[in-house]
Design goal:
The protein is of the alpha+beta class. Helices cover about 40% and strands about 20% of the residues. Helix 8 runs antiparallel to helix 9.
Length: about 325
């Protein structure tokens, strides 16, 4: 993403492998610029990428789809260069559910009234689209006509919640095995919480059995706990998650997946509690300093300090028998020639 960001002053990191950049009013040859971007990412990271160019986000996503599908475009496609006839022909070849922003349920609603392709969507009445899909559907409709309605978010919006969950490598029955898994997942969630300088006021812990087994009903166990004061300290959150897990745990079940949700996130600052007499106590200050020290050491030395509840047989870890080597992110797995 850093390499891509060098090609535009405005960038939105949409996902781990997808990004939008703004190229308006830049004095350059657009296609040459994008081919240069593609070559540099390939040269510096070894990762092949495709670039879709369009006047709106929806059109750029559609162009990216074409760049991936047809090798003759050499990984870069500008949808705005198409004539109206060719653009309509392209829309006819794309199912409406493949449009960016049209989910599975929205596609079903559109299919019921005879809208099956992106061209059907394009030719529909905007009022009908807004009635079925709301404001977001109307924005997608207008973006197909070249009117930008979904701006690039250079500054990501503040998170509302952090979810950390995992399907276990095998079904877990023992409480200590579940606690080991949940402790690991909690520490990852707390790291994200601190990286975004946030604190949480609600914690939800959940575990459930395999929903795909037809011979046994799925058992879903969860509990949410709220706090009067926002917390972000792992020395507080990890023991609390263990207590919640103990409350919901029922022996005799084989649990397939578990996790936690940190909700009602707020800015990370110490809010005063009128009913707490130990708000600024030395014990709390030392606990925060200890947690910060542990995080710093783990960040530098690859998670070398662990809580006792994180240690165990590791049966919860997902199976990775066919995992590819991490040539670009792990020193121990560098490609040797």
């Amino acid at each position: 993403m850093k390499v891509i960001g060098e090609y535009s002053p405005v960038q939105e990191v949409y996902s781990i492998d997808e990004s939008f950049i703004d190229l308006m009013r830049l004095p350059l040859n657009l296609m040459d610029h994008m081919h240069s971007l593609r070559r540099r990412v390939k040269s510096w990271t070894g990762i092949p990428v495709c670039v879709g160019v369009g006047s709106t986000k929806v059109l750029a996503k559609l162009a990216n789809r074409i760049a991936k599908k047809y090798p003759r475009f050499d990984g870069v496609f500008d949808i705005d260069d198409l004539s109206y006839e060719r653009y309509c022909k392209l829309l006819k070849s794309v199912e409406v559910g493949d449009l960016w922003g049209i989910g599975r349920q929205s596609a079903k609603k559109l299919n019921r009234i005879g809208i099956h392709t992106s061209h059907d969507f394009y030719q529909s009445d905007v009022g009908v689209i807004e009635t079925l899909l709301g404001v977001n559907g109307k924005k997608i409709y207008k973006e197909l006509y070249g009117s930008s309605c979904i701006p690039i978010e250079a500054i990501p919006p503040a998170r509302k919640q952090i979810v950390s969950s995992r399907s276990f490598g095998c079904d877990l029955k023992d409480f200590d095995e579940l606690n080991q898994a949940l402790t690991n997942l909690t520490r990852k969630a707390v790291n994200k919480l601190n990286n975004h300088q946030l604190a949480t006021t609600t914690i939800t812990v959940f575990i459930y059995t395999n929903p795909h087994k037809k011979d046994k009903p799925c058992v879903h166990l969860s509990k949410t706990v709220g706090m009067t004061t926002a917390i972000q300290d792992q020395s507080q959150i990890i023991p609390l998650v263990a207590q919640i897990l103990r409350l919901i745990y029922k022996p005799g079940h084989s649990f397939y997946k578990g996790g936690l949700v940190l909700g009602n996130l707020t800015k990370n600052y110490q809010q005063q509690d009128l009913f707490s007499i130990t708000q600024n106590s030395q014990i709390q200050t030392m606990a925060r300093q200890k947690s910060n020290t542990i995080r710093s050491v783990n960040k530098r030395f690859n998670e070398s300090i662990k809580y006792a509840s994180e240690l165990g047989n590791n049966r919860w870890l997902p199976r990775a028998d066919f995992k590819s080597n991490r040539y670009t992110t792990s020193w121990t797995e560098l490609l040797v020639i």
